[in-house]
Specification:
Strand content: 5-15%
Number of helices: 10
Strand order of the largest sheet: 1-5-6-4-2-3
Distance between the termini: 31 Å
Order of helices and strands: EHHEEHEEEHHEEEEHHHHH
Length: 356
């Protein structure tokens, strides 16, 4: 049964507090610019340039949203054909068979798996809960090392082939970016400091749940990696982030070392990365991992429901780590009983990462 909201249904936002949410942390691209060869540095610089240009363009023109019939999955995949013009040429629509292009098929399947998680587990009607059409553009730019949610659709680069593979290759990246859309229409967490780190963390959480559900994995079976398969075999690393062990996903001469902390005592306090939105997300990420594995079973069933209801009903745009912790502990008690195994697991998780 769908849990009733404890507040009025929100009006969909015209744009997100985060104007463009990218999977690639800026500090990783900056490392490549400093440490890569001429070609790698040039590609990383171009990726940063394009992302900044798109931020400016969206801030100027806003977004356009397209609705499907309520309760209807409607995916449309576009091909930018290495241009920077969006959305591009339509290459696959809902119900059409796979194409010969793996990026098209991965974008289609990943959007479908994300839609299914939200619809079948959380009874959510697409990203905005009102039937938003799922549009995706592949082959954006030339060797573009990023994927992003622009407020109304998904956009994927092909990667450079040296450090990064195509950005549709990891289904959790697709789930991550589409979840920025869910956050946009719900808590609308400000994309800076702790609220921004929560914004990134919720995307990692539900991106991981999309992957786990497709693979039919329990919490104990999952690898808890974000972006596995995205790094090429030339890179010393396994993924962009690890929810299980923040700070261990990569350690590479060109990309640098994964800077994520897993505890508040090591929290980044600087101004880079919008106050550490990609860095400090490791703290709530590890809290979710600890809660989900302590509860056991499929992570989307209980831990995922707690986190989803927190995002949908309880958090606000400026919520910090402590607010997220108190809200999820309270929800665990409401859903499963005071001092239940689930509530104890959630409380212990936040205590272990130093938030409570």
């Amino acid at each position: 049964m769908r849990e009733p909201r404890n507040r009025a249904q929100k009006t969909p936002q015209a744009s997100c507090v985060c104007p463009i949410c990218c999977i690639m942390p800026p500090y990783m691209l900056e490392h490549i610019i400093r440490n890569g060869d001429d070609r790698q540095s040039g590609m990383a610089f171009e990726t940063l340039r394009r992302s900044e240009q798109f931020r400016g363009r969206r801030a100027t023109v806003g977004t356009i949203t397209f609705m499907a019939q309520p309760g209807t999955k409607r995916r449309t995949i576009f091909d930018a054909q290495q241009s920077e013009d969006l959305p591009g040429r339509i290459v696959r629509t809902e119900g059409q068979p796979p194409t010969d292009d793996p990026a098209v098929n991965e974008a289609y399947d990943g959007a479908g798996a994300t839609y299914d998680l939200y619809a079948e587990i959380f009874e959510r009607n697409s990203i905005d809960d009102r039937g938003l059409r799922l549009d995706s553009t592949v082959h954006y730019g030339v060797e573009y090392d990023n994927a992003f949610w622009d407020g109304s659709q998904m956009v994927y680069g092909d990667g450079d082939g040296e450090l990064f593979n195509r950005f549709t290759i990891a289904i959790d990246v697709i789930g991550h970016e589409l979840t920025h859309g869910v956050t946009q229409y719900e808590a609308n967490l400000v994309y800076a400091n702790e609220p921004g780190a929560l914004n990134e963390s919720f995307s990692d959480v539900f991106g991981s749940l999309v992957k786990q559900r497709v693979l039919n994995q329990t919490a104990d079976q999952a690898d808890w990696l974000i972006g596995e398969g995205l790094l090429t075999d030339r890179v010393q690393g396994v993924a962009l982030r690890s929810m299980k062990a923040p700070g261990t996903a990569y350690d590479d001469p060109v990309l640098g070392k994964d800077p994520q902390p897993g505890n508040v005592k090591d929290q980044y306090r600087g101004r880079a990365d919008n106050g550490g939105v990609h860095i400090n997300s490791g703290i709530p990420n590890r809290a979710f991992y600890l809660a989900a594995t302590a509860i056991g079973g499929y992570a989307w069933e209980k831990a995922g429901r707690i986190w989803y209801l927190a995002l949908r009903d309880r958090l606000r745009s400026n919520s910090n780590f402590r607010r997220a912790a108190t809200v999820t502990v309270a929800l665990a008690g409401e859903l499963y009983g005071t001092e239940s195994t689930e509530q104890q697991a959630v409380r212990s998780a936040w205590q272990e990462v130093g938030v409570l």
